[in-house]
Amino acid sequence: MAKNVLSISSHVVHGYVGNRATVFPLQYYGWDVDAVNTTNFSNHPGYGSFEGKPSSPELVADIFQGLKEILNLNDNYDMILTGYTPGDKVLEVIYQQLSSIFNSSDKSKLPIWIVDPVLGDNGRLYVSENVIPIYKKIFSSGFVTLTSPNQFEFETLTGLKLTNWDSVVEGLTKFYELYKVPNVVISSAIIDDEMYSIGYSHSDDTKSPSIFYLPINQIDCNFNGCGDLFTALLANAFFENDKKLTPLTLSTVLIKLNLILQHSYKEEQQVTGQEVIKVVKDIRIISSRHYLLQDNQDNELVVKVKYL
Amino acid sequence: MSKSVLSIQSHVVHGYVGGKAAIFPLQTQGWEVDNINTVNFSNHTGYGSFKGNSIDENDELNPILNQLINNLHINYNAILTGYIPNSNLINCIGKYVKQVKEQDDKVLYLLDPVMGDNNYLYVSESCITEYQNLLTYNMIDIITPNQFELELLSNNKITDLNTLKLSILKLHLNFNIKYIVITSLSSSIFNPPDNEDTESNKQDDKFIYCACSTLTNLNQIQIFKIPIIKSYFTGVGDLFSALLLDKLYNNIHSITTTTTTTSDIEKLTRSVNQVLTIMSKTLKLTHSIGLKEFNKHKSVSSTTNSSGNIIGKINDADSMKYFELKIIESRSLYDYCGDGAFKPELLKVDY
Questions:
Q1: Residue A119 and residue A135 in contact, taking contact as beta carbons nearer than 8 Å
Q2: Whole-prediction pTM
């Protein structure tokens, strides 16, 4: 049975960030992906220069209007994924359009909304700071099922720094108090000089949440588009696991991501002839596509899970 | 060994035409596909309504192409161009393709001159002269017009085998095009209407013809006769061109062949046969899944044809959405590299 996802993120002609990092993996998993592009750029800014322009709010609103004329948006999608959106006006349009879906009277087949609140990384914003309050509004709406911020984004949204496990618990608790988003994955966070991926699942309000973390096999290199790919893999794994976030789900995602990044690193070494690579501008999603379908249900990472 | 292609064609959010029909199949075959979206539409025009806009030449297309080719110096193995909505954009793209081909003639350029079908033009008239101008650059390796587009490009109405051959030769010789594939030809070319065998004419309505020819073997035009599935499918030509690029590239570079095909026409014919085989399976799958989904959602409909079969109908969003090409479900079909299910025949023309 076909699965339908609406993926709203950036488009670049060359390279694998935004929709270019999410669409193909999801298609390979059998999803019909309707891709709304928030930008039309030649490449990502990591190259030092780029051309093209972001999509205007009018264009994005128009595209939604066009879709509504041919589809019943209230029951067409199983999942909606939102990622890189550089400007507040476009993000506001997206919020308004999606709100009207979630506010519809027909609740029989509402999609799940997965939000990657792309703000920046390593202490640096790479979108307009005006999008921050809109993300806060989106999270407060009650429409979001899962979100996948990185450490910087999580800290920005909660105003709390993650320095040790106590602050992680404090931060996740605060995030839930603020926004009531039932599933949160902090894609990567450095705690005590080690990198971890942290999961928070609070699907039943009457019970206490499950908070857990898994170590990340860290490669000392910056991979552009890594967060976008992570969210795509997570979205699929989450959906396929009956929309539940568990350590096993997260472990399969981390393993696949690691295999793809390792492969990309090796290809970059071959192409550049250099032993040490600091930046991989283009993740090799196409040539590592066989990893996507690999069965990782039985893996050694999941046993390293720690609960908080 | 990775292969890369710059694909320049339309983007629709919902449905499978243009890039949506071409990119995923190419990616499953290992191609790194850089895609420039000539339009950004909600859906294809067959639904009767759509929203969105075309790429802007000055703000987007020209600077983006300049960035990729002259600043990032990306080396592509191939360039694929499809639907381009106006003549200024065709002109702009043509200039950059010319530059790339002048720098490296080994880059394989496939031009799908998307202009219309069945005597209906769906781009502006000025596109015809712009494509004709682009032909004069003598840089096209592969061209995949349908009958109507071939007629427009060659200024020559195709009514019989002679006019068909003449049009093909014109493209080969005047513009140095190496590989020509006419993706769909009317059966009346092969069975003239004055033919008295009316039963065979009726039978022929159920077939469509496809021709292929190479510059190095001008007297060996090959004809394929293919059964038609009666429904309105969109994106078929876009998928065809993408698959042809992959198969021909592989056959030229002997990537997937075990047999030694020697001549260009043998390589092209083999490639076209592989593509037609995949297309035939994809369309059958599309039709059967479409019917199943349609029946599940609708009980009564206006889109039933005379024989009681439900078909995709143009300008009817309700039926159209069920007959979008099943590009995702057909994933396992794209790597087919056998001999092909069809039997080509040599075109015989008496002068």
A1: yes
A2: 0.95
Chain segment B275-310, per-residue pLDDT in tens: 999 999 999 999 999 888 888 776 544 455 544 455
Q: In whole angstroms, how large is the CA radius of gyration of chain B?
A: 20
CB contact under 8 A, B35 and A13: yes
Distance of alpha carbon B32 from alpha carbon A194, whole angstroms:
34
Question: In this prediction, what percent of chain A has a pLDDT beyond 70?
Answer: 100
Work out the percent of chain B whose per-residue pLDDT is above 70: 89
Amino acid, res. B339:
D
Spatial distance between the Cα atoms of B319 and B294, rounded to a whole number of angstroms: 7
Nearest chain B residue (CA) to A59: B52
- Cα three-residue angle B68-B70-B72, rounded to 5 degrees: 50
- Neighboring chain A residues of B67 at a CB cutoff of 8 Å: 42-43, 49-51
| pLDDT at position B261 | 57
Euclidean distance between the first and the last CA atom of chain A, given in angstroms as a whole number: 38
Q: Which residues does chain A have within 8 Å of residue B31's beta carbon, measured at their own beta carbons?
A: 286
Per the structure block, which two tokens stand in for A20?
């270019």
Please write the tens of the pLDDT for every residue from B111-134. Answer: 999 999 999 998 999 999 999 999
If you average pLDDT over every residue of chain B, what do you get?
A: 91
CA distances from B216 to A11, A64, B249, B271, B346 (A): 41, 50, 17, 16, 15
Contact B47 A286 (CB under 8 A): no
How far is B123 from chain A, CA to nearest CA, in Å? 20
Output the DSSP codes for A106-161: --TTPPEEEE----EETTEE-S-TTHHHHHHHHHHTT-EEEE---HHHHHHHHS--
Q: Using CB atoms, pick whichever of A41, A66, A289 lies closest to residue B43.
A: A66
The distance of Cα A255 from the centroid of its chain, to the nearest Å, equals 16
Q: Is A258 in a helix, a strand, or coil?
A: helix
Check residue A205 and give its pLDDT.
Answer: 79
* Domains of chain B, start order: 3-348 (3.40.1190.20)
* A155, A168 Cβ separation under 8 angstroms: no
Q: In 3D, which of B177, B179, B168, B208 has the Cα closest to residue B191? A: B208
Residue A247: CB partners within 8 Å, gap ≥ 6? A199, A212, A214, A302, A305
Report chain B residues whose CB lies below 8 A from the CB of A11.
11, 37
In B205-248, beta strands by DSSP E: 207-214, 222-227
